[in-house]
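The passage that follows is intended for readers who have already worked through the single-chain material. We present the inputs for a multi-component assembly, then the predicted structure in tokenized form, and finally a short commentary. You are encouraged to pause after the input and sketch how you expect the pieces to fit together before reading on.
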Amino acid sequence: MAQHKVIGTETEYGIVVRGDPSFNPAIASSLVVNSYPGARVRLQWSFEEESPGRDARGMGHDAYGMPDPESAVANSVLANGARLYVDHAHPEYSAPEAYDPLEAALYDKAGERVMHRAAVAASASSGRQVSLYKNNSDGKGNSYGAHENYLLSRDTPFTDVIRYATTFMVTRQIFTGSGKVGRENDRPDVDYQITQRADFFEEEVGLETTLKRPIINTRDEPHGDPSRYRRLHVIIGDANLSEVQIFLKVGTTALMLAALEDGALPDPLDLRDPVTACWQVSHDLSMKEPLDLDEGGTATALELQWRYHEWLSKYAEAELDDPVWKQVLDEWERVLTLLEADPMRLADTLDWVAKKRILDGYRERDGLAWTDPKLKALSLQYHDVDPAKGLYQRLAARGSFRRLFTDDQIEEATVEPPTRTRAYFRGRCVSRFPDSLVAANWDSLVFDVGEATLKRVPMMEPLRGDAERVAELIDAAEDAAQLIERLGG
Amino acid sequence: MSDRERAQSRRREESESSEETAKRTESEADLEALDELLDEIDEVLEENAEEFVKNYVQKGGE
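Having made your guess, compare it with the prediction:
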């Protein structure tokens, strides 16, 4: 039986200081992170258990093993279990571990609220206007990531992941894109394309995330018991604003990975050249571009997605009880059907379509060419997290997007952790014992309870530390010392 | 044709025929809604688009 798919997303936000084109992005990002006024603890992120340089194919890579001193400058853990920090030149929100795709979408959305409040506070304290963008490209050849993480069993051979997941990742772009004007990175010229990220992918498989980006990233850093788990680190996705789209992206991918682990994908559907196909899919607004298959012949991204839909429908029906998977499959079917009939009918569901609808409207009304700066400005402004300025935020507020959550639910998710994963323990400890927490990591918390040594609580099981197991313990403990004592340490 | 393909093609036909008549009024309503939307966006649009785009430069990340 497949490993339960714990899911987490991480997003680097674009940052701008108005009126100061030469601002230092690392300093501005630190200001944003350190200004966040919500419930959190600022602390050291412990690197001792992390190993981003370890390769799932069995190779080592020492150069990646060192802690990054820049990242230690501004780091905090929020009451919802998320991590808010500076990653190089961007503020980053890593959502808490979610139990299912709905929860993963909710906590991804909560990140936008967190970032907006941090930007408002940073603007107030600095006297400058700091703006944040949930996107992945500056349109000038620089990309920053929106990554997804899925828990896999250590028993799943990584060669199977490479073999069976590649075509899925390339073809899912038709519904994971957030839309971009033009091309980057010397790709073929286009007016508009489906994704922000496709132009930056250059390899099929690899360890890199900042150059020569691979479709399948091999980082082997489970953030849990390494003898039991893998964590698939997916870097080929766009940051999305549409709630339904985030749900669909992580839901279909989690379902595909579960089926992969259970041997329920009958065919790898190998593409002859996955990297070229990656750009082809993103550049093809007609949904009709034939992709060369390794065994000969061609298929479109849509046709390949229908194959996965068919297999995964059967798999879910036979193997999975949770109704959330039916919701994933129904939404997937709806989206594929409409992409086939007329993609523009998904302007209330997919970011790339909603954005294109606005740009087409401006082109028509004002007679603008695709190269007009106004269209590029609109395309960037779509992603502004400010509810007053961000075009997605305006569309959602006026009811032009299908929603999964109320504003109140998203607001609550900025302070309340998920209840069915270890994020519960982390988040509740931030709320209850902020002064005793001195360091944190995805799989441990370190407390100072006034004794000679610090107390480290390991959290190597992503599905333990949930409310059912620890809520009473945390609520009943008067202080961190008592909690540690009752935890048996 | 597999069951699924038959179901898909049936679904497509149904949605096409049942929406044929409503299409015209719907698209007119759509246009009106889009005009309204563009007017609303005009109010909040970055004032100097060219400068805004020029100054939007990010360092690579990840």
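Commentary: The radius of gyration of chain A is 22 Å. Chain A touches chain B through 50 residues (CB under 8 Å). How closely did your sketch match?
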